[in-house]
Amino acid sequence: MAAMKGLTAVLSLAYLVALSLTVHGQQSQADGPRYANGTSLVRPTNYREWTFIGSGLGLTYEAETASPTAAPTFTNTFVNPSSYRAFMQTGTWPNGTVFVLELRRSQTEAAPNKGGRFQTDLLVLEAEVKDARFPDGWAFFNFGRGTALSDVTPPLSGEAVASCVECHTKHAAVERTFVQFYPTLLEVARQKRTLKPGF
Questions:
Q1: pLDDT tens profile 175-185
Q2: CA Rg, the chain, in Å?
Q3: 179: how many CB neighbours lie within 10 A of its CB?
Q4: Is residue 77 within 8 Å of residue 55, measured between CB atoms?
Q5: Cα–Cα dist 141/42, whole Å
Q6: Is residue 167 part of a domain?
């Protein structure tokens, strides 16, 4: 009788572990990239419920700078939760990682604000995906501007993607990502020793 109870307990435990792994695997896939026509990224409508990894104000990557009188824009970056959890454990991004980048207008005039800036209208929505289906394992997407966002977009190509690839390859701290702008992720990369050589 005791042996039967022990066997039942072991089988129950094995079932719970298998169920947990199955649910975790389903959740990981559910928050990864979804495509139409194989490579056109479907805009993740719930990305604002994903892990928020950081925000910048007035960041520019190009030689030209904005007009001195223009208000700086905010950039907000979100990553799918399963990829964030994987990065926190390993310091690298798994296949199926999706970053969503918002560019938002900044403003100063609203009560009771006396100084500083806050975020307002969405200007642009972009994404970067790590996925083995693309030639070098990464792809960049632009969903458009403001309220005229597309629901599905093909990966950038030609000169546009060449510029992204060159900048991300040359300046990114981890793989093709600007982890240097996200202090908690940068610390993980240092601990896991996954920063690019020479960074």
A1: 999 999 999 99
A2: 21
A3: 26
A4: yes
A5: 10
A6: yes
